[in-house]
Specification:
- The chain is an alpha/beta fold.
- The protein is about 20% helix and about 25% strand.
- The protein has six helices and 16 strands.
- It has helices spanning about 95-110, 130-135, 140-145, 160-170, 205-215, 245-260; strands at about 10, 15-20, 45, 65-70, 75-80, 115, 150, 180-185, 190, 220-225, 265-270, 275-280, 285-290, 315-325, 325-335, 340-350.
- It has an eight-stranded mixed sheet with strand order 3-4-8-9-10-11-13-12.
- The chain is globular and about 50 Å long.
Length: about 375
């Protein structure tokens, strides 16, 4: 395979656009020995070479988006979920292979414009075979040409963090060297952060998030923030090991402050807690979508949770549908008979009615 001497490398049949300019200076180009390993399907995407030569370590993107994908010509669909825990299908203790595979097939059938994965894609990120299972079970996604944007969870770093990162970047080579990034998609803007790293004030990620929010494209109506550990969640019943941490609580405060200064609607999608939860606070929608296949958690739901159904287990995905009228979402749950049924629906935003034109006989 040869490396094109242009700003983008296109690999068939995935039609993947790769831009080496935003990678480490020591890696001016990257040869992908096996295109099938690449599942971050940025079909028709371009990578914005906005990083200066002396980018501070860890601060890997300037105010503009890391990636840009073509704006939809009309309506669009986004699917989000997390906590799949791809691993040997014989392991039915920590994950449900049947549910995991049913969700993958359903997502492929939906043919969304983009898919956001909120982390814990593998069960053990330091085990290469877990990613092999991931590639095998998600073959339908490649066949459908889906654009997949993953966030890094804690299981991506299980065992050996360095080996986990190596396996992560081998699986998603477009992200080589990146642990957080952004995507411009028409009226949508995706901000994916790594909650394994600091998000508190003064951290590099917090500064980067601030830059992203302060420099949103003018047409942005919806900002989707994807991460693993939830900034807002009710606890697991009888277990506080997955409670909201100060790290993500700081991000929530940052986002709620930003929500007061922007007309764009901010939606946060996290996982880690293996259940479905929905909250709204200070102009920000918070979703917990940990129903991708991992063993489910019983939740001690508080009245602030806008979803009060304690059906168990709740393997699910969230489908966002946007058009000229606004943005609505429906959560689909895998029921006992193996079919997907709506379990929650909500409106994120509606289009503002056009101002009435002044009448010809209006008073002067």
């Amino acid at each position: 395979m040869t490396i094109a001497a242009t700003a983008a490398l296109k690999i068939r049949p995935l039609r993947l656009a790769f831009c080496p300019a935003a990678f480490y200076r020591a890696l001016p180009c990257l040869a992908l020995s096996c295109p099938a390993l690449a599942l971050l399907l940025l079909a028709g995407a371009s990578c914005n070479a906005d990083s200066p030569a002396k980018t501070p370590k860890g601060l890997i993107s300037q105010p503009g988006p890391t990636f840009t994908i073509p704006a939809p010509s009309g309506s669009w669909t986004l699917i989000a979920y997390g906590d799949m825990r791809f691993t040997d299908p014989s392991n039915t203790k920590v994950t449900n292979p049947a549910a995991r595979q049913a969700l993958v097939a359903r997502v492929a059938a939906e043919k969304p414009d983009a898919v956001l994965l909120s982390g814990d894609v593998p069960y053990n990120g330091s085990v290469a075979n877990d990613y092999a299972v991931f590639r095998q079970e998600t073959e339908a996604w490649r066949g459908a040409g889906l654009r997949v944007f993953p966030a890094m969870g804690n299981h991506e770093l299980h065992g050996s963090a360095s080996l986990g990162l190596e396996n992560w970047w081998k699986t998603f080579p477009e992200l080589n060297g990146r642990r957080w990034y952004s995507v411009r998609f028409g009226q949508c803007y995706f901000i994916t952060v790594d909650s394994n790293l600091e998000l508190t004030p003064g951290s590099q990620q917090s500064a980067w998030v601030a830059q992203q929010l302060q420099n949103l494209p003018a047409e942005t109506k919806y900002v989707f923030v994807s991460l693993h550990h939830p900034p807002m969640a009710d606890p697991i019943a009888g277990d506080h090991s997955h409670d909201v941490r100060p790290n993500e609580a700081a991000l929530a405060q940052q986002l709620e402050t930003a929500a007061r200064a922007t007309t764009a609607k901010i939606v946060v999608i996290a996982g880690h807690v293996h259940a479905y939860q929905r909250f709204a606070r200070n102009g920000v929608v918070y979703l917990v979508s940990g129903g991708g296949g991992a063993a489910q958690h019983h939740i001690a739901r508080s009245p602030r949770d806008l979803y009060q159904d304690n059906v168990f287990p709740n393997f699910h995905y969230i489908k966002f549908m946007g058009d000229a009228s606004g943005l609505k979402a429906t959560t689909y749950r895998l029921n006992e008979s193996g079919t997907f049924v709506p379990s929650d629906s909500f409106v994120v935003a509606t289009a503002k009615p056009a101002a009435k034109a002044a009448t010809a006989g209006a008073a002067k």
